[in-house]
Every structure is written in C-alpha cells, then in structure tokens.
Amino acid sequence: MSEPLGGQSGAEERRPPVVVVVTLLTAVLTVLLIAFAWPAARSEPRDLPLAVAGPDAAVAQVSAGLERARPGGFEIKAMADRGAAVRSIEDRDVYGAIVLDPQNPEVLTASAGSPAVAQILTQVAAGLAAQNGGVAPKVTDIVPLPKDDPRGAGLAAGALPLVLGGIIGAAALIQLLKKEQNRVPAAITFAVTGALALTAVLQFWLGSLEGNYFANASVIALSIAAISLTLLGLEWLLGVAGLALGGATMMLLGNPLSGLTSAPEMLPTGWGALGQFLPPGAAGTALRSVSFFDGAGSGRPFVVLGCWLVLGLVLCGLGAARDRNRRPAVHGRHEASAVTV
Which positions, given as ranges, span the membrane (predicted)? Predict the structure, then answer.
C-alpha cells in the first residue's frame, strides 16, 4: 500500500502551487479584459474620412469647426457637389458627407458601413443646426442597413463566431484526424460548409446581410480557411504552443481590433490599422463591402485574407516536408539496428 501513496505524493509534488495557478488565471483574465474592453472604451473618431461638399470658403470654415470640436477626429475630403460626395460614399472612400447647400443643407451617412459612425455624423448634424440658428440639416442614409436588422446587431455579433469557427475547426481537426495530411482538405471543406451555414443564418434568418448569398459566403469561407489553416500549420510545426499562439493572436488581437462593431478609424491609433491586417478585420471589411457596397473597397481585405491563406498552406507544407525528411532517418536507424542484431 506504500507504493501508491508514494506515487500520489510524487504527483502532488509535481503540481504547481495554488498561488501560481491563481496568479496565472488572474493574469489571463486581465489580458482578456484589456483585449476586449480597451478598444471599445477608447472608441472615438481618429482621422475618419469625411467628405464636405460646397464652396471652398464654406468647406474650410466647416473643416475648422470640426477640428475644434473633435481635434484629429476627421480627415476632410473636399467635394465639388452632392453627387461627388454620394459616389465617394458608395465607393467606400469616405464614411459620410456634409453638403453645404444654403437652401438645403444635408448630412449623408452610410449606416451599412458603420452604424457607430452614422450616429456620430447625425450628432454632427445637430451641431451644425445649432451653428445655423436652429436650422437642422436633412440626414440621408445613402447605404442603409437592412430593415430586418437596422442597428447591424447581427453582423456585429457574428464577429466572434467567425473567429471561433477557424479556431475551433483547427483544434477539432487536430484531435479527430491523426494523419496531418488529411487535415488540410478537411479544413477547406469545413470552411466552405461552415460559411454556407453562417451566411444562411445571417442573411436569410436574421436579415443582417444583403447582396449575393454565395459572394457573402465566399468571404466567410476565406476567413475561416485562413484562420484554421494558419493554426493547423503552426501546430504542425510547433506543436501545442503553435496552436495556442495562433489562437491567442486571432482571439485577443484579431477579434477586438476587427472594427466590425464600429470602424477601424474608431479604434486607438495604430491598433485599428493592425486589425485590418489580421483575418477577422479583413473579413469584416470585405463582408460589408461585398454585402452592401457591391464590392467597393474589398480589394485590400481580399489580398490580406489571401496572404493568410497562402501562409497557412505554406506552414502546412513545411510541416509535411519535415515529416517526410524524418521518415527516412527513422527508417535508416531501424535498419541499422536490425543489422546489428
């Protein structure tokens, strides 16, 4: 009976102290809070592209007023007239516009591009009304959100499942498929089927997306594949540490910095730009562009997603090549052992 007790004692000694475990869990909880709460708590316009249409003198006056009200908040782009401002919004060059027409002042928004920015521009309209003796400019939503989801809640809430789809998919395939070479086609297949399902829920059930169903699904599929293949490749090369590193990057950086709930320009300086170079941010921007703006502004996000997809395939290829190089060496050692015997 003494041996089992001794074995249990040894196992207990190898376990980390309670203080270490509690400290580690506290650190993890703190990191999670910072990652998700900090960008939201510091959300405000930072060089937000905004068109101002009208005479040069009036444009300069309004630009100066906006700079005083929100220093560094807007990047003003002067436009000749309302038509040019509308085209700029539809091309996703700006988030909205102020039309300085003495007879019909107007503020143009695009809630499909960012409900948060549209709300800010509506507040700007109220400020302009105060400056103009109470004459409120007309607010026109050039690219509105769907009627079934006027606040964009479904699309914003879909950011987390989109990231988790790639992470959970990679983790599940690693556990269920012991042969690494089978994981790549399985991940691609899962990305397609998962995207079709998620898009169906967002577009046909919640009404959060518009446009072509298969075009929307292709964006989500590309995002899931980019995340899952990158994680599979990291695990193939680095083991569990690689999977943990990739998952933490996508969850703690990619998701909160995606700007899907507001806009990249609403996040702390530099972090919003970083988020657009990670799959969640690129996917969110591409999905808005494809669903509501006929693909305008989706070029760079697709390039980013494509680069991550290629990176994942390269990492998986390196892992497969390393395994192939190991097999002859192991086989050679076995043969040498057999000859010696």
Answer: 18-41, 153-174, 186-207, 213-232, 237-257, 302-321
